Amino acid sequence: MRKHGGCGAMSTIGFIGLGIMGSPMAVNLAKAGHTVLGWNRSPGRAAALVAAGGTKAASIAEAVRAADVVITMVPASPQVEAVAYGPDGILENARPGTLLIDHSSITPQTSVDLARAAADKGIRVLDAPVSGGEAGAVEGVLSIMVGGERADFDAARPVFDAVGTTVVHCGPHGAGQTVKAANQLIVAVNLQALAEAVVFLEKSGVDLRAALDVLGGGLAGSTVLNRKKDNLLARDFTPGFKLELHHKDMGIVTDAARSVGATLPVGAAAAQLIASAVARGDGGLDHSALLRGVELLSGYGPAE
């Protein structure tokens, strides 16, 4: 881990949200030498952190009370607000001077509001959503797009370096979330195009594995293709990133685009196809399960 000034080489970290992404991130922080106290709303999620040398906290207050850095990784804006505000929340229990890093994917305005409320308590905030999915979280190679004060970004580098390899300061509060919204737009369109290509190739009688291998080596290659190829080949939609969360993110990007006057014709179509998948009951599956919708439209019969 590269060492930078600000938070010190090692920090005491209160980590809130030990889900699909949060658990491996907290584990990597513990393995990097940080002292990590983890809390999750639902029980039974702290085992991996404890095995890596971290500690299970009984409450948000316990997790953040002695922390230099507090990290949140929860599903959406309502959950961020639930853990941040109120007498049992982060802002009432963290010490002045604490650095709060929110890795959740939420609306830019929620991030701006949180930073403003935290400043009244003497707490610094960075919105720092991530990209890379569960595999990126496990491998510690996430891309992290950060909004907030540059000095706070610089101070947070020892923490970011434990979980990501591409870490970029994107601008003021909310900028990280805006870039994440664009990321989710690109990923959604890419996944839909990949699903359509898979069905096209199969119906044409082409060896799908060979086709995806050669496509991955050309201009059509992408991180999405590399990460999701095996899911598509095996029709294994065990969630690395759930469709219902991508549905939430597409709502964020379409609303944000409307507010700034940007038109997203292909993105709007992808958003509707994701909404359709969630309405069919696929929300708990990996977002590569967009393939199931293309199969239905192409006459494969009911998705199994």
TrEMBL record:
rRNA-binding keyword on record: no
Keywords: NAD, Oxidoreductase
GO terms of biological process kind: glyoxylate metabolic process; organic acid catabolic process
Pfam families in UniProt: NAD_binding_11, NAD_binding_2
Domain 6-phosphogluconate dehydrogenase NADP-binding span(s) in chain numbering: 12-171
GO MF assignments: 2-hydroxy-3-oxopropionate reductase activity; NAD binding; NADP binding
Domain of life, per lineage: Bacteria
Entry annotation: catalytic residues: K180
Enzyme class: oxidoreductase
Listed InterPro entries: 3-OH-isobutyrate_DH-rel_CS, 6-PGluconate_DH-like_C_sf, 6PGD_dom2, 6PGDH_NADP-bd, HIBADH-like_NADP-bd, HIBADH-related, NAD(P)-bd_dom_sf, Tartro_sem_red
Annotated 3-hydroxyisobutyrate dehydrogenase-like NAD-binding domain residues: 174-292
The enzyme's E.C. designation: 1.1.1.60
Entry similarity comment: Belongs to the HIBADH-related family.
PANTHER family per UniProt: 3-HYDROXYISOBUTYRATE DEHYDROGENASE-LIKE 1, MITOCHONDRIAL-RELATED
Protein name listed in UniProt: 2-hydroxy-3-oxopropionate reductase
Species, as recorded: Streptomyces inhibens
Lineage: Bacteria, Bacillati, Actinomycetota, Actinomycetes, Kitasatosporales
